[in-house]
Every structure is written in C-alpha cells, then in structure tokens.
Amino acid sequence: MTLIHLPTTGYKITCPPTILPQKEWNNITLVGEAAGSTEVNWWSCDKCKHGVPYPGNCQSCGIPRQFKPQGFVGASGNMLAMICRNAGIDFKKCNRSNVVKTWPGEGKDFGIYYYDPKNARSQRKSCNGGDNSSSPSYHATDLMWL
Questions:
Q1: 114-126 pLDDT per residue, tens
Q2: Cα 120 → chain centroid
Q3: Would you say the pTM of this structure is higher than 0.85?
Q4: Under 8 Å CB-to-CB from 40, ≥6 apart: which residues?
Q5: How do 29-34 and 95-100 pair as beta strands?
Q6: 47: nearest Cα among 29, 32, 35, 59
Q7: What pLDDT does 105 receive?
Q8: 108-142 burial string, b = 16+ CB within 10 Å, else e?
C-alpha cells in the first residue's frame, strides 16, 4: 500500500529544501509534513537575510528582497525555532525540508498526500480478523505511526 500519494497532475516543487554547506551545518535536519502558504511565498534579503511573505525592499538595508521559498519560516517555523533555542540547538544551522515539497492550496487539507489510518479504521477488518466493535486491535499499517 502506498503511504504518500502525489497528485497525478500539476505537481511541482514550490518549497525546495534548505540545505546548508557542510561547514555551516550542525548535523541536524528538520523535516516537516508539507509546505505551508508562508513557506511558498517567502521573500528574503540577500544581504541581511531578513525575510517576509511578500515582495518589496528590505526594511533593514533597503535592497529588493528575492523570492526564496523555504521550509519552517511561518508560525510553525517560529515555534520550532523557539523549541530548538530552548534545547540549545542553533535553528539557523539546521537543514530544513518537507516530505511533500509543495503546498496543497488554500483551504485544502494536507491529507490529500497520505493515507491516514485514523480515518480508515471503521472501514476495514483488524489484524485478528474481527470487526472494530470488539476489543481494541490494530491494522498492520497503524504501526507505521508508532
């Protein structure tokens, strides 16, 4: 059974991975589920590296920002950066990527990219051959999330 389903048409990378040069990398790679709207609309300054989710000139140095989509720059990225800081990890030295390197679109659920056993348990038999109304049991594909 395929666990990740890519759309059959129109799939393209809208949020490439952020891979650092070996000398700057701290040997930690953070991997998310899929790109969010902020990540695919990210603009950053080449000089000072400040970024925002819209085009224009950099507020710090005045030069035009460049379109550079990257992972973990939105609200989730800010939360992850705070968690890393509290754990003593330099977030800026981590490689960042997503399993699915595109955004599903406004109002669409990331579930279009994968099989979620939580939504399918009532539609199948469990490993022990019984229905799901008896004692708890798990389908073999449930173990992938443990």
A1: 666 766 544 444 3
A2: 23
A3: no
A4: 14, 15, 69, 102, 103
A5: parallel
A6: 59
A7: 75
A8: eebeebeeebeeeeeeeebeeeeeeeeeeeeeeee
